[in-house]
Design brief:
- The protein starts with 9 loop residues before the first helix and ends in a 6-residue tail after the last strand.
- It is built from 15 helices and 18 strands.
- The relative contact order is 0.07.
- The chain is rod-shaped.
- The strands form four sheets. Strands 1, 2, 3, 4, 5 and 6 form a six-stranded antiparallel β-sheet that branches. The protein has a five-stranded antiparallel β-sheet with strand order 8-7-11-10-9.
- The protein folds into four domains: 66-176, 2-Layer Sandwich (Beta-Lactamase), CATH 3.30.450; 182-269, 2-Layer Sandwich (Beta-Lactamase), CATH 3.30.450.20; 309-349, no CATH class; 357-513, Alpha-Beta Plaits, CATH 3.30.70.270.
- Helix content is 49%, strand content 20%.
Length: 519
């Protein structure tokens, strides 16, 4: 990545990294806040709809109580006897008990006989409610929609029943209630700011409203609102209140009267709730971003300084100079500094690994050749003797075939250990490959080399306990002497190798000195 044609610094890269982490995190937080808001919004709608159902239940109870009262009043003996004065007193008591606004007794043609809004005996008008014809045919009570009473001259509604004798209607009996009776069951305090509760009659006329009812009660709501509520028992939809406020309207139909109870929640309330959720996310994200960027700037400077302090030690290592490490402030940089300081030892370790057998830890073929060359030059200068022993294990292949290579490797390590403990510190032991080993005996003549070889055969041939197994192998050893056998490293190794094969041909488990020399 390049910024404006230049390679980015650590500080700028960290800042980009911080922003790359914070921006998705902030967006995720905003998404979670919005999801939480949506869930809270839906819960509020559900709770409000439950309150609307409760309001509808209260409305139904009012209607059912009034219906029960008018039915009980309709069974009064005073009606059949024509004792209207007594019935007037009974109707007045029912009106008081039910907190109704009036009780009306009418002839089947609509002529009022009694209206508790007027004293008994007062001349009363003809009054036929919108559902008057239906009530004469009905067997159940009918709840009217809002209408203007002939006596009260005010909007009200009524619960009406027919009073029958011998199956024929002889009277209609009505309990009338003004809208304030319904307004009394509406919530007196809104749980949410700007919330409105109300009741509509079956024609969509406003019967009661919790706030701002002046001039609205008795008016029919717009047709589009009625269309939204027409085919659903309950639900919600967006609307605009009579005050012009966007809101969500929740409604439920009454099973007893087919009236509608509703409540509204202003959209501004939801918007405020959403903003309240998001503003904390934005504020916290901005605060975290500021802190994170400042920290990234500081850390970037520390990293840059620590890396820059490693430049000089790296160059010193390349030139083979002593590595001096300055102050570093990060663990990783400190580890790099230590790695530079230990680079020479690592190189030595790599060199050691290149010169030693991985399985046994003995010198390998390359190191043995180097040491042989060096000792050969030393022996020539000092006029010293030297012997090379070439060792090959007898029966090793059978161990591998019978017990597996894992046991074979253990056996090779055990043999190497016995060889290492058998020689002097000045002697050199090597594994040339497979089950072949070589020994370089310093200042050893023919007799010494042959005697040592025989002892070595006995040592190698002793049983090995490996993983509860007792393994036995032998060894064939070829011996080459300097200067008697050969004067070069290659000649000594070749002569020792040939002597070893001669030992195998003679029966294994023995040693042979090169050039057919005998003990």
């Amino acid at each position: 990545m390049k910024i404006l044609g230049a390679k980015p610094s650590i500080r700028s890269s960290l800042i980009v990294l911080v922003l790359a982490c914070l921006i998705p995190a902030a967006l995720a937080q905003a998404g979670l806040a919005y999801y939480s808001f949506k869930a809270e919004r839906q819960q509020l709608l559900n709770d409000t709809l439950a309150r609307v159902r409760a309001l509808t239940g209260s409305l139904d109870r009012e209607m059912i109580a009034a219906e029960g009262a008018v039915r009980a009043l309709g069974t009064s003996p005073a009606l059949l006897s024509g004792d209207y004065a007594t019935f007037y007193d009974q109707a007045t008591q029912v009106q008081i008990q039910q907190q109704a606004d009036n009780v009306v007794l009418s002839w089947p043609n609509g002529q009022q006989i009694i209206n508790t809004l007027r004293p008994y005996g007062t001349k009363l008008p003809m009054s036929r409610t919108p559902d008057f014809e239906k009530i004469l045919q009905a067997d159940t009570a009918i709840t009217t929609n809002l209408f203007v009473g002939a006596v009260s001259k005010q909007p009200h509604f009524a619960i009406q029943i027919p009073v029958r004798h011998d199956g024929k209607p002889i009277y209609t009996l009505t309990i009338g209630m003004f809208p304030h009776r319904i307004a009394a069951i509406l919530p007196t305090e809104s749980t949410l700011p700007g919330q409105i509760a109300g009741v509509l009659d079956g024609n969509g006329v406003l019967v009661a409203r919790s706030t701002g009812e002046d001039g609205l009660v008795g008016n029919k709501v717009p047709a589009q609102l009625l269309a939204q509520m027409e085919h659903r028992k309950e639900g919600s939809f967006p609307t605009t209140t009579a005050e012009g406020v966007p809101a969500v309207l929740l409604f439920a139909h009454s099973a007893a009267s087919q009236w509608v109870s509703y409540m509204t929640i202003p959209e501004a309330y939801f918007q405020q709730k959403l903003w309240d959720s998001l503003k904390w996310v934005l504020a916290i994200s901005l605060l975290l971003a500021t802190a994170a960027l400042a920290f990234a700037w500081f850390v970037g400077g520390v990293i840059a300084q620590s890396i820059a302090s490693l430049t000089a030690p790296a160059l010193a290592l390349g030139y083979g100079q002593t590595v001096k490490i300055g102050a570093v402030y990060l663990r990783e940089a400190d580890e790099v500094a230590k790695a530079l300081a230990e680079a020479s030892s690592v190189l030595r370790a790599a060199q050691y690994e290149a010169q030693h057998d991985k399985l046994t830890g003995l010198a390998n073929h390359a190191l043995f050749n180097d040491m042989l060359n060096q000792q050969l030059l030393l022996c020539e200068r000092m006029k010293m003797h030297m012997a090379v022993l070439f060792i090959d294990l007898d029966g090793f292949k059978a161990v591998n075939d019978t017990h597996g290579h894992g046991v074979g490797d253990q056996l090779l390590r055990a043999v190497a250990t016995r060889l290492g403990t058998a020689v002097r510190s000045s002697d050199i032991v090597a594994r040339l490959g497979g089950d072949e080993f070589a020994l370089l005996l310093i200042d050893a003549g023919r007799a010494d080399a042959y005697r040592f070889a025989q002892q070595l055969i006995e040592r190698i041939s002793a049983p090995y306990l490996l993983d509860d197994l007792s393994i036995c192998v032998a060894a064939s050893i070829g011996i080459a002497l300097f200067p008697e056998t050969a004067a070069t490293p290659e000649g000594l190794l070749l002569a020792a190798d040939e002597a070893m094969y001669q030992a195998k041909r003679e029966g294994k488990g023995r040693s042979v000195v090169a050039q057919a020399l005998t003990p």
